[in-house]
Amino acid sequence: MENTWLYYNDPKELEKSIFTLPSRFLPGAFHHSSFTSINLKEDFMAFEPSEKTQAILDMMNEFVDKELIPLEAEMMNGKEFFELEPELEKKRQMVRDMELWAPLHPKECGGMGLPLMDTAMIFEVLGRTWYGLYAFGCQAPDAGNAEILHKYGTPEQKEKYLNPLVEGKIRSCFSMTEVEVAGSNPTWLLTTAEKDGDDYVINGQKWYTSCADGAEFAIVMAETNPEAESRHQRASMIIVPIEAQGFNLVRNIQVMGHVGNGWNSHAEVAYQNCRVPQSNVLGGEGMGFVLAQDRLGPGRIHHCMRWVGIMNRCFELMCSYAKKRRRTPDQVLADSDIIKTYVADSAADILSSRLMVLNAAWTIQNKGVKDAMKDISIIKFYVANAMQRVVDRALQVHGGLGMSDDTPIGLYYRGERSARIYDGADEVHKISVAKRILREY
What we know:
Layout: H1 2-8, H2 11-14, E1 37-40, E2 43-46, H3 51-68, H4 72-76, H5 81-97, H6 116-126, H7 132-135, H8 142-152, H9 155-167, E3 172-175, E4 192-196, E5 199-210, E6 217-223, E7 235-241, E8 247-252, E9 266-277, E10 281-282, H10 288-324, E11 326-328, E12 331-332, H11 337-367, H12 373-398, H13 400-403, H14 409-415, H15 426-438
Parallel strand pairs: 3-6
Antiparallel strand pairs: 1-2, 4-5, 5-9, 6-7, 7-10, 8-9, 11-12
């Protein structure tokens, strides 16, 4: 199995394919000959990275190929996060030594402080392998938690939680989704945080609190102001140390047959009279919805570009395999017109997704999240579905090999089905987009 894995994931083998994506599709390869900019109305959207950013992308791409993709065989052969963590920490130290650590976080916190357009392109590169984002210190949910801690945290909160989080010394989790209510409605929560002296006493049940196993703290969404006239001002975000009495990690949920541990897990958590100081509220009481929206805007850009990275990887594997897998003694799969349509459709899915996400990122960076709300919703459902199509085609071309764990395709098929659900289900985003469009008529 190990030899098969290395063969089908060897960058040198992939380079042999004449079906390899042109440079304009590839992560870390943005050239003047590519379609890298468009005009929309009176604004010029430049999608080409600076020379410095291109150098960063090239270095990251090389690191992914040489240092991270070889680790996938161990993961697929059964090693869970805690077993791989020592080796992953070595890779993270290499990244720090290369001065490529935490590209999206501010310099004053220990990151590179790169703008959203640059980090979007970086997520495309790092998305090509499962632990890419983790190795470079920009993984969810820590990235989103760090963003709102930086923007809304008090000096004490930043010192205790933000700085070690960005440095990679600790991990965190985000506790919002509940068992009994619709996850697509962030204004409807059953978890409560009631004042008692100088403390909050939190009660409620959450699940899909990703990465809680081994985390240092959670950011919990709970109702603190049930009598507020606006339902958007009833909830708050509260920092809860995992060691706090009343924080109970019930289980790591088995998702698509996988339980996992550490960063690679999703927990159910029961808050049972969990007591924390009121000073742990983030951004002030009643600000939970505002913080959630701030957290999800750039976060969806990063998710979508990570999915483009997954598409690139599966496309590379599909084309390489089609060029060498024989279907008859004198023909390979790539000789089939049906396979050619898979290649063309996948190339279109990748390019359209990439340009749409960069368009949304450009709008956020230059005009703000408010002007990009429609674009953010569009990319969330479009790119998630495009990714599933590309992964499915790659699996189909690989046949029985695709069903096995000798390639990462099966992992992406199982692990990324959730893309159409978390951060807002497809249907919710489609309805939102349609409402915004119809208001213009």
